[in-house]
Amino acid sequence: MSIQIFILSKLMEDNNYPYKLKKQLSEPIPLDQLGGLTESKLYYHFDSLAKQGLIETVKIIKEEHRPDKQVFAITEKGREELPKKIYKLFENAKAISDMVVGLESIKYVDRERVVEILEKKIKNIKAHWEQISHLEKQIQIDEEHKKFAEFVSGYVSTRTEHTIYWLEELIKRIKQGDI
């Protein structure tokens, strides 16, 4: 989904073609390589978006001794669907790293709604942590497994605190307009 959001967001700015977008993704930081985005995956998502009626071919550039370049534009339906896809990305994200493309495209959605989604995530994480904490107190752990249980508990506790901290930081920065 994030690749499709990236494509639609770029087409909101200007008409474009797949190879040019891939090149933009790789400079100056090779985000395409970091994300495992190949040209074939990018073309697949362009094709998928076209089949959904979210983008359309507006021009074909013919060059001698080179394949034709299809230039795409976002459709009205694509403009309507982009915010829905961005909200869904935030709702489904398991970590902030899953939200990067949505954060990059935040100008196309209501920031307050994004904040509400993130606040709900924090609330759910805290509720889940509370539930787990109560279980930990009820379980009897024998000496053989005590050190392992302490390790796992420490890891989960630290990771949960870390996640909450960074979600709260993200919310703060969105509210301040820094993101």
From TrEMBL:
<dbReference type="InterPro" id="IPR005149">
    <property type="entry name" value="Tscrpt_reg_PadR_N"/>
</dbReference>
<protein>
    <submittedName>
        <fullName>PadR family transcriptional regulator</fullName>
    </submittedName>
</protein>
<dbReference type="InterPro" id="IPR036390">
    <property type="entry name" value="WH_DNA-bd_sf"/>
</dbReference>
<dbReference type="Pfam" id="PF03551">
    <property type="entry name" value="PadR"/>
</dbReference>
<dbReference type="InterPro" id="IPR036388">
    <property type="entry name" value="WH-like_DNA-bd_sf"/>
</dbReference>
<feature type="domain" description="Transcription regulator PadR N-terminal">
    <location>
        <begin position="7"/>
        <end position="82"/>
    </location>
</feature>
